Amino acid sequence: MLILTYSQTPLRALKNEIFKFRAIIVHHHLTNIIKVVLNPKILKYHFE
Predict the structure, then answer these.
(1) How far is CA 5 from CA 8, 9, 12, 34, in A?
(2) Which residue of 20, 29, 30, 45 is 20 to 30 Å from 5, comparing CA positions?
(3) Domain ranges of the chain
(4) Per its UniProt entry, which superkingdom is the organism in (predicted)?
């Protein structure tokens, strides 16, 4: 029982870390998209 609990905890922690990492990436992309939408000049600058 003790071994089972011990083996599950790191997996749960790892899943939490992966979830946080994904959330950070998604947040980063969303902020970039919002910046581009709010500033069409940036978009034009990228494609020139």
Answers:
(1) 5, 6, 11, 43
(2) 20
(3) 2-47
(4) Bacteria
CA angle 45, 39, 20 (to 5 degrees): 105
Report the distance separating Cα 35 and Cα 28, nearest Å: 11
For 2-26, the pLDDT digits (tens) are: 555 556 677 888 888 889 999 999 9
pLDDT number for residue 46? 59
What pLDDT was estimated at residue 27? 92
- Between CA 22 and CA 30 the distance in angstroms is 12
